[in-house]
Design brief:
single chain; alpha+beta; Rossmann fold; D-amino Acid Aminotransferase, Chain A, domain 1; Dna Ligase, domain 1; six-stranded antiparallel beta sheet; 35% helix; 20% strand; globular
Length: 331
């Protein structure tokens, strides 16, 4: 066997669809488990925090370099929720997939990410952060409201497109009450695009981008729902726009220092792309997740994707200085 993979996961619960919207389905976890076993690894699927922590702590110190945790933990509400596994693994000197805790926490905050990337010339629409339900509109209409720290389009529907003061007064208080703080953006009227970047620092490569097709004018939580998934990808992106998006995507990966994989969303206005957000813990379903579809668009297989991600995690463990403290202390 090549080693042991722990699939650390939150599993989607149809009885709690909102809180678990970002979590993977049981079918996805089973498919990943089977695929990774076929790659030559032992696999353990764990979803309880105490169990995950206990297992990691009890791996013999000299064996930890042969284990790797696939980070599928999304949690909810906490701004640190996507960083639980990376921080724990780094502290215990256990390899893991994906980006560091610092990158996970940073990119979950859409406002800070946009502010940072804008300072390096990445094009963004105007944006503001709102925490007061009584605040007046900070910019000209139309505007768009979204939770600042949620994914999977949580809290987003057609009403979030704000055309006037009445719309603002109707939508803002409820959104602030549930998801504060709220990100306010100048509304972009063009098509939405998505692209993935794979690799570690110094060896990034971007996939082909794709238009994200969905019914209606807003990429809502109903579109993203695992129970009614209606999103599709259109890869007929013009060559010039493809080059531009790939250049921005790799630049973004370098600026934030991502590892393994990220997915980046853009939207057009007058045929020019504007950055929306970075997802550092994208889904890995072979059916409904966007990143595997972007990967497979270049005739690469799902098993090849999972194998590459695991290799990147082991490479990061061997070479990145962020593991040095734990290695010195534990090994």
């Amino acid at each position: 066997m090549k080693g042991t993979v722990i699939l650390a996961c939150d599993v989607y619960d149809p009885n709690e669809p909102e809180l678990s919207q970002e979590w993977e389905s049981e079918e996805t976890i089973q498919k990943m488990e089977t695929t990774i076993k076929d790659l030559g690894y032992d696999v353990a699927v764990l979803s309880n925090p105490t169990e995950i922590t206990s297992v990691l702590c009890n791996i013999p110190i000299e064996e930890r370099k042969h284990w790797i945790v696939w980070n599928l933990i999304e949690g909810y509400q906490s701004p640190n929720r996507e960083a639980y596994i990376p921080a724990l693994c780094e502290y215990l000197a256990v390899p893991h997939t994906g980006s560091s805790a610092a990158v996970q926490t940073f990119t979950l905050d859409k406002y800070k990410t946009k502010l940072f990337l804008k300072s390096f010339g990445i094009p963004t629409a105007n944006f503001w952060l709102v925490e007061d339900k009584n605040q007046t509109p900070p910019g000209n209409f139309p505007l768009f409201l979204k939770p600042n720290g949620e994914g999977s389009s949580l809290g987003i529907n057609e009403k979030n497109q704000i055309q006037n003061t009445n719309d603002w007064m109707e939508v803002l208080p409820a959104l602030v009450g549930k998801y504060s703080p709220v990100l306010v953006e100048s509304y972009l009227s063009g098509r939405e695009l998505t692209i993935a970047v794979l690799g570690n620092k110094g060896s990034y490569s971007a996939t082909a981008p794709a238009f994200v097709e969905y019914p209606g004018s807003v990429y809502s939580d109903l579109v993203k729902s695992k129970e009614s998934f209606v999103e599709s990808l259109d890869f007929s992106v013009p060559k010039e726009l493809t080059t531009s998006l790939q250049t921005y995507a790799v630049q973004i990966a370098n600026l934030i220092g991502s590892s393994g994989y990220i997915r980046i969303d853009f939207k057009l206005e007058k045929d020019l792309p504007y950055f929306l957000e970075v997802n550092a813990t994208p889904g890995f379903s072979s059916v409904y997740s966007t990143l595997p579809l972007l990967w497979e668009s270049s005739e690469r297989t799902y098993p090849e994707l999972l194998n590459y991600v695991l290799d990147l995690g082991f490479q990061e463990y061997k070479h990145h200085h962020r593991y040095k403290y734990a290695k010195d202390k534990n090994l």
